[in-house]
Amino acid sequence: AQSVAQPEDQVNVAEGNPLTVKCTYSVSGNPYLFWYVQYPNRGLQFLLKYITGDNLVKGSYGFEAEFNKSQTSFHLKKPSALVSDSALYFCAVRPDQTGANNLFFGTGTRLTVIP
Amino acid sequence: EPEVTQTPSHQVTQMGQEVILRCVPISNHLYFYWYRQILGQKVEFLVSFYNNEISEKSEIFDDQFSVERPDGSNFTLKIRSTKLEDSAMYFCASMTTGIVSEQFFGPGTRLTVL
């Protein structure tokens, strides 16, 4: 069975400090991994994805994520947080199976960047 | 930048009534999806649609639910007889092609069943 875990409901970080939002996954076969962000009253916005290749992927707004196969993790990172990064972040996985292209989401992590 | 749109933003209905949630996917996309998010819970997959037919559906998507692409632009989700537990945020998403593409989500419709 496919699943995604985001162990932290809430992450607080001071503006200018590095941030990490954690994600671990369980999937049959090779995973395709995604991060989405949700601002208030908005839909889910795509940030970045890992399909294959370099374990460090870069995405929108200065975010990056590192795929770690041995730890089955895909943590989201940013070197210097902005107040405008405050939002709800979702990790998602799509299994590498023919015909299976729906996403399995984590429960979300609320990031608050403190000025 | 093209985006997925959804109407209405908020729908209030009485238990047992039918509701239709509407979505306009991005115009050159080929795969369409509905997800829902019950308040405080994770986003859950409902159904995917490709080539004018359902390609996958979850166990949530029972006989009370149906989807349709009535013309070249709209994608609808119908709930025939709403239950209290159908109250949730419903998200539409679309994708170009291929398993490596990302899905683009609309802003959601908040459905409240009284």
Describe the protein's architecture and organization.
- The complex is a heterodimer of chains A (115) and B (114).
- With 115 residues, chain A is an all-beta fold.
- Chain A contains no helices and 12 strands.
- In chain A, the strands form 3 sheets. In chain A, strands 2, 5, 6, 10, 11 and 12 form a 6-stranded mixed sheet that branches. A 4-stranded antiparallel sheet of chain A has the order 3-9-8-7, with no helix packed on it.
- In chain A, strand 10 (87-95) and strand 11 form a beta hairpin.
- Chain A starts with a strand and ends with a strand.
- The mean pLDDT of chain A is 91.
- In chain B, strand 4 and strand 5 form a beta hairpin.
- Chain B starts with a strand and ends with a strand.
- The mean pLDDT of chain B is 93.
- The chains are: A mainly beta (115), B mainly beta (114).
- The interface between A and B is medium-sized, with 25 and 26 residues.
Number of strands of chain A: 12
Question: How large, in whole angstroms, is the Cα Rg of chain B?
Answer: 13 Å
User: Any low-confidence stretches of chain B, pLDDT <50, length ≥5?
Assistant: none
Indicate the multimeric state. Answer: heterodimer
Largest interface (CB < 8 Å): A-B, 25 and 26 residues
Distance between the termini of chain A: 41 Å
Proportion of residues in helical segments of chain B: under 10%
For the biggest sheet of chain B, the summary is:
7 strands, mixed
Mean pLDDT figure of chain A: 91
Structural class of chain B: mainly beta
Task: Please state the average pLDDT score of chain B.
Answer: 93
Count of extended strands of chain B:
11
Number of helices of chain B: 0
Envelope shape of chain B: globular
Beta-strand level of the residues of chain A, as a percent range? Answer: over 45%
* SSE arrangement of chain B, N to C: EEEEEEEEEEE
What is the succession of H and E elements of chain A? EEEEEEEEEEEE
Identify the overall geometry of chain A.
globular
Number of separate helices of chain A:
0
Name the beta content range of chain B.
over 45%
